[in-house]
Design goal:
- The chain has 367 residues and is α/β, with parallel strands linked by helices.
- It has a single domain, classed as 3-Layer(aba) Sandwich (Rossmann fold).
- Helix content is 37%, strand content 8%.
- The chain has 12 helices and 6 strands.
- Strands 2-3-1-4-5-6 form a 6-stranded mixed beta sheet, sandwiched between helices.
- Strand 5, helix 11 and strand 6 form a beta-alpha-beta unit.
- Helix 5 packs across helix 12 and helix 6 runs parallel beside helix 10.
C-alpha cells in the first residue's frame, strides 16, 4: 500500500537538503574551476579570459584563477621533449587589446619558429589587462606549475605605485592567494588592506557565491562560440587614438620629484624573482608611445610626466645591476605611429618589431 505524499514534508526535506548542500559547499570549497570543457571538448584559449561584452566577444572577466588557467591552452599542452617553453606575463599590452591572438607578442614569437638549445620555442600569453606588479606575481605563481624554460615579465612604471597593487579586481578578489604569497614568498601585504573583497562564510555558500558559479558556467558556454569563430574580444572598426597632446601637467599619482624607491612596490618585483626561483627571467620595460605633440616636453604620454619616468628608468637600471637581473629597457623601440588606443597598446606591426628585438635576448637565455 503506497504512502500518501505530503507536500509539506517534501518541501521541508528539500529545504533541509538545500541548506545542507550550501553548508557543504561553503566548508569544502570544491574548486570547481579546475574542471573545464576547454582542452577537452574544444581547444584551450590562447589568452586568459577577459571581456566586458560577452555576447560580442564570447569572453568574460571572472576572478576564479583555477577556471582562468583551466581554459588556457597551456593547461592542455603537455610539454614536449623538444619544447623550449616561454611564458609571458604583463598587462593589456601583452594580453593584446585590439589584437588577434596571432598578432600578440606571444603569437608573433611563435610565428617566427625560433629554436633555442636545439628545441622549438613555444611562447604562451599569460598577460592580463590592468596594470599591477602584484597581479603579475599572482599569475606568475600559477604559471610556474607549467615548467617554463624562460619567463618574460613585461612591465612599466604604472605597475609600481603602491596604491595600484591590490586595487585591481583580480587581486582584490583573490585575497587568500595573495596572503599565501605573503607567507611563502614575503610579498608585502597590509593586514587590513581595504581593497580586498573578504568573503564571509555565507558568501562562500552556493547561494552567496552564485555570481562566481554563473561566471564559471558562462565561460564554458562561450567556449562553444569562441572555438567556432576564434573571436575573443570586440574589434571595433574605429577607435579613439592614443592621446598625443596634453595639458602642462607634471602630476603623477600624487608623487613628487624625485621619485623614491620607497614610493614603488619594489617588494612585489623582488617577490616575482623569488616565485620563479632558478628559472631564467627577462624583466622588460615595455615600449611606450613617446609623443611629439603639445606639452610633450613635459609629458611623454598620457601616463607619464618626463620626470617620473626618467627617475623610474634610473631606479630600474640600478636595481637590476645590483641584483644581477637580466633587464631589457625597450621603452623607445617602437615609433609613435605603431600604437593604437593607448600609450602601451601596439599595432600588429609594432608587436612584430618588439618580437624581433626580444628574440636575441630569448636565445641568449637558452639553458
Amino acid at each position: 500500500m503506497s504512502q500518501e505524499i505530503k507536500p509539506l514534508n517534501v518541501l521541508i526535506k528539500g529545504l533541509l537538503l538545500f541548506i545542507l548542500f550550501n553548508l557543504v559547499i561553503a566548508a569544502w570549497q570544491p574548486g570547481v574551476g579546475r574542471f573545464s570543457l576547454y582542452n577537452i571538448l574544444y581547444p584551450g584559449r590562447e589568452r586568459l579570459p577577459f571581456g566586458e561584452n560577452p555576447k560580442q566577444s564570447y569572453n568574460l572577466s571572472l576572478f576564479d584563477l583555477d577556471a582562468m588557467f583551466a581554459s588556457h591552452v597551456i593547461t592542455g599542452t603537455p610539454k614536449a621533449h623538444d619544447e623550449f617553453r616561454v611564458i609571458i606575463v604583463g598587462d593589456s599590452s601583452v594580453w593584446g587589446t585590439l589584437l588577434k591572438p596571432e598578432e600578440t607578442l606571444a603569437g608573433q614569437l611563435n610565428a617566427d619558429n625560433l629554436n633555442a638549445c636545439g628545441k622549438n620555442i613555444r611562447a604562451y600569453n599569460l598577460g592580463y589587462p590592468t596594470i599591477s606588479l602584484t597581479k603579475d606575481v599572482m599569475l606568475l605563481s600559477y604559471a610556474m606549475d607549467y615548467d617554463p624554460n624562460l619567463v618574460i615579465w613585461m612591465t612599466t612604471l604604472d605597475a609600481f605605485p603602491l596604491e595600484k597593487q591590490t586595487s585591481t579586481p583580480l587581486v582584490a578578489n583573490n585575497e587568500e592567494k595573495v596572503r599565501e604569497l605573503a607567507t611563502s614568498y614575503q610579498l608585502r601585504v597590509e593586514a587590513d588592506d581595504p581593497n580586498f573583497e573578504v568573503e564571509s562564510f555565507w558568501q562562500k555558500t552556493f547561494v552567496g557565491n552564485r555570481r562566481s558559479w554563473a561566471d564559471f558556467f558562462r565561460l564554458q558556454i562561450y567556449g562553444v562560440m569562441w572555438s567556432a569563430t576564434g573571436i575573443d574580444q570586440v574589434y571595433p572598426s574605429d577607435y579613439e587614438k592614443a592621446q598625443t597632446d596634453f595639458e602642462a601637467d607634471e602630476s603623477y599619482h600624487d608623487l613628487t620629484a624625485p621619485l623614491s624607491e620607497d614610493e614603488l612596490a619594489l617588494n612585489a618585483l623582488e617577490t616575482g624573482y623569488r616565485v620563479v626561483g632558478e628559472t631564467p627571467m627577462l624583466l622588460v620595460n615595455e615600449p611606450m608611445l613617446i609623443s611629439s605633440g603639445a606639452n610633450s616636453d613635459i609629458r611623454y604620454n598620457f601616463f607619464y610626466p618626463r620626470w617620473a619616468y626618467d627617475d623610474y628608468r634610473e631606479i630600474m637600471t640600478s636595481l637590476s645591476h645590483g641584483n644581477g637581473w637580466t633587464y631589457v629597457d625597450l621603452w623607445n623601440v617602437v615609433p609613435a605611429n605603431e600604437f593604437t588606443n593607448s600609450a602601451i597598446h601596439l599595432t600588429p606591426a609594432g608587436e612584430n618589431l618588439l618580437a624581433d628585438v626580444l628574440a636575441p635576448y630569448i636565445l641568449e637565455n637558452c639553458k
